[in-house]
């Protein structure tokens, strides 16, 4: 009975089973049984406080380094001249066009500061109402940096002139920018002779002189080809309207305390082309001054 469970002698199966049962391979190599194999000790889990005490010094060092960097950062240079203001706007647009916008002065601290201490913009910008031309974004400026006036076709009529006079006289800004943009719908509509009704017709009337001038200067061009010329000329015409109808602006230009420049924003490249001051600025100031007298 004791041999009933034994495999037949001489069988391969019996030889292998017996060899393995005693922990030996067929080649005579000792095979460790499962219960004889070493078990790796589980890594002890550190207590939460012990782990915190280990990382706390490094965390504290990082925080102190950050505070030192913030404390040692150079203070912002005040923008007091037209040249400084233009440079700031150019640099901001370059950042935006390159995809490196910093979105400055957009945090809670800036909001509270401007709410408690008032606004101190360094420039005024007259731009188009087109949703693709958000002035502060394309110039990479923040809360309290710019006094922005947006109107379709960046025209300067009575209301816009009054707004500019306010910021020039009461906030003392050194720079006014009139910024048009490529593919301007208002300018294109005037070129194509769209018949508008209501208050839109009055808006169109401010753009019409610029369109008529480029037609005279480029008689062989199609309406589509005339759009870029008309956009730029419309910027100049808006500046002409501002100088002609504002004694305060005109006087500050003559005194050298205010610059009014033109610009055109390209909605495709995100770059601003800076036109500078009106080429006939001095003559415009003189003629408007005589007319007002």
Instruction: Report the CATH C-level class of the largest domain.
Output: Alpha Beta
The fraction of residues in strands falls at 5-15%
Runs with pLDDT <50, length 5+? 1-22, 67-75
Give me the side-by-side strand order of the main sheet: 2-1-3-4-5
Describe the main β-sheet briefly.
Answer: 5 strands, mixed
Report on the structure:
The longest helix is centred in the N-terminal third of the chain and has 25 residues, at 48-72. The model is unreliable at 1-22 and 67-75 (pLDDT under 50). 51% of the residues lie in helices and 10% in strands. The chain has a 5-stranded mixed β-sheet with strand order 2-1-3-4-5, sandwiched between helices. The protein has helices at residues 12-21, 48-72, 82-97, 108-117, 135-138, 158-170, 185-191, 199-217, 223-245, 247-255, 281-292, and strands spanning 123-127, 146-150, 175-181, 259-265, 272-277. With 293 residues, it is of the alpha/beta class. It has 2 domains: 12-71, no CATH class; 80-292, 3-Layer(aba) Sandwich (Beta-carbonic Anhydrase, Chain A).
Topology overview:
Elements: H1 12-21, H2 48-72, H3 82-97, H4 108-117, E1 123-127, H5 135-138, E2 146-150, H6 158-170, E3 175-181, H7 185-191, H8 199-217, H9 223-245, H10 247-255, E4 259-265, E5 272-277, H11 281-292
Parallel strand pairs: 1-2, 1-3, 3-4
Antiparallel strand pairs: 4-5
In short:
The protein is 51% helix and 10% strand.
């Amino acid at each position: 009975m004791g041999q009933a469970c034994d495999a037949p002698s001489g069988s391969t199966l019996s030889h292998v089973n017996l060899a393995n049962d005693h922990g030996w391979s067929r080649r005579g190599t000792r095979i460790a049984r499962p219960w004889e194999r070493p078990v790796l000790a589980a890594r002890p889990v550190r207590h939460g406080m012990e782990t915190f005490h280990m990382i706390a010094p490094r965390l504290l060092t990082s925080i102190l380094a950050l505070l030192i960097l913030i404390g040692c950062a150079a203070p912002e240079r005040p923008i007091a001249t037209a040249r400084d203001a233009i440079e700031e706007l150019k640099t901001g647009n370059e950042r935006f066009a390159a995809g490196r916008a910093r979105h400055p002065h957009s945090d809670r601290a800036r909001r509270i500061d401007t709410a408690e201490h008032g606004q101190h913009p360094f420039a005024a910008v007259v731009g188009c109402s087109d949703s693709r031309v958000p002035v502060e974004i394309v110039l990479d400026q923040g809360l309290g940096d710019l006094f922005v006036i947006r109107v379709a076709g960046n025209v300067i009529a009575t209301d816009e002139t009054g707004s500019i006079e306010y910021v020039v006289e009461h906030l003392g800004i050194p720079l006014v920018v009139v910024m048009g943009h490529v593919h301007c719908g208002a300018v294109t509509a005037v070129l194509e002779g769209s018949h508008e009704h209501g208050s839109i017709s009055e808006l169109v009337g401010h753009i019409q002189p610029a369109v008529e001038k480029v037609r005279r200067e480029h008689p062989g061009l199609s309406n589509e080809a005339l759009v870029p010329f008309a956009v730029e000329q419309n910027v100049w015409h808006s500046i002409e309207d501002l100088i002609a109808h504002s004694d305060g602006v005109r006087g500050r230009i003559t005194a050298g305390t205010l610059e009014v420049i033109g610009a055109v924003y390209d909605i495709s490249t995100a770059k601003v082309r800076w036109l500078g001051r009106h080429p006939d600025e001095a003559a415009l100031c003189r003629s408007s001054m005589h007319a007002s007298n």
